Amino acid sequence: MRKADLVAKISEKTGIAKVDVLVTLEQLFREVKESLAEGEPVYVRGFGSFIVKKRAQKIGRHIKKNEAIVIPEHFIPSFKPAKTFTEQVKENAAKIKENLAKEDKKG
Where along the chain do its domains lie? Predict the structure, then answer.
């Protein structure tokens, strides 16, 4: 599902104009990004948590030059689904497998 599909579905189910849904959705994304950029997690009960994870410094390899490089520690955004969300996905495993099979046949 793409963002446009999501906007259309929300608009259809709520009766709110697509433009208003899009503006609201964009503002939600913007707020999540800004909060994470400040190091503040975003918790949505029943859905999940948007958090920042620390990646430790490590040694990588520059393949073309065949030399070791140091990858400094850095922070990345992460999403951790709520327990109820995870359980809901597990309960619908058969439907998910069916949808994935359809996608494989298309591609």
Answer: 1-39
pTM score of the predicted model: 0.73
**pLDDT computed for residue 92 by the predictor:** 86
pLDDT band at 96 (very low <50, low <70, confident <90, very high): confident
Contact yes or no for 79/48 (Cβ under 8 A): yes
As a whole number of angstroms, the distance between CA 27 and CA 49 comes to: 17
